[in-house]
Amino acid sequence: MAYIATMPSGQREARRVQAVKLRRAGEKATVIAERLGVAVHTVYAWCKKARIGGVRALKSKPKSGRPRKLGERERRELGRLVIAGPRASGSDRDLWTLPMIRELIQERFGVTYHVDHLGRVMALLNLTRQKPKVRAVERDEKEIKRFVAEVFPDLEKKRARKATPLSS
Fold it and tell me: Partner of 116 at 20 to 30 A CA spacing, among 69, 134, 141, 163?
């Protein structure tokens, strides 16, 4: 039943009203619950609310909590900016840091976030932390391939010959 949370509030209200109407028409709560994809006790709770407060009591309530600082459009734009990389936003760095993203949000949208909370904002955008691979500048890929193909197998053979079997 995980899909219910993403159902628009109008559909949720209509489902509650439908459940109450079906119950008043004599339908069993178990049948209603199965048809609507909810628990039986939920049907009973909806019917009780409607009995006490009428159909108005079945309306969706506004979400509680503080509203988000960035609207949907601003979050989409932030996502595009972050994906484009810091250089596209005028930085001389190749990778974003949370303090850099904080500055970008402040300059672009006039909104201030604490760095510790930006992880949640990035999660809303389906963006995750990236850790660059640390590689030596002197790394020689051709030499590594040659070593793995030619030298390493000989070292493995020598190691296998030196290993002595355990006697029982």
Answer: 134
